[in-house]
Design a protein that fits this description.
The chain is of the alpha+beta class. Helices cover about 40% and strands about 15% of the residues. The mean pLDDT is about 85.
Length: about 120
């Protein structure tokens, strides 16, 4: 009888802990400087090591990064700062100057010799 009571108690605690986990949140971050596959790979590789981020989808054609993250582990400002630390602007957060200087020329802004502006 003691084993059954202990089993029920442990099962109840486990289920209540699973029920309290926060659902991931997905945000869309404007990143106009990401314009090629190399830029995309650089951002994805950097963000996969950030705590709380579960998924990163970089769409360099539209200039956005969709990030899915756990709110109890990180927040939107930390994610934007991480993108800025790679060398790219992220919404209202400006790219880290030193990281931007280390980017290959092709990955820089058009005024710095990088990707040409789109003409639509």
């Amino acid at each position: 009888m003691k084993k059954l009571t202990l089993f029920i108690l442990i099962s109840g605690l486990t289920l209540s802990a699973l029920g309290q986990q926060k659902k991931p949140v997905t945000v869309k971050i404007n990143t106009p400087g990401i314009k090629c596959e190399e830029c995309k790979k650089r951002v994805e590789d950097y963000l996969k090591y950030e705590e709380g981020i579960t998924k990163v989808v970089v769409n360099y054609h539209s200039g956005y990064v969709n990030v899915t993250y756990l709110k109890d582990r990180t927040n939107l400002e930390n994610i934007k700062t991480a993108i800025a630390n790679v060398g790219y602007d992220a919404d209202d957060v400006t790219a880290d100057e030193d990281a931007y200087k280390k980017l290959p020329t092709i990955c820089k802004k058009p005024e710095d010799g990088g990707h040409p502006k789109k003409t639509n």
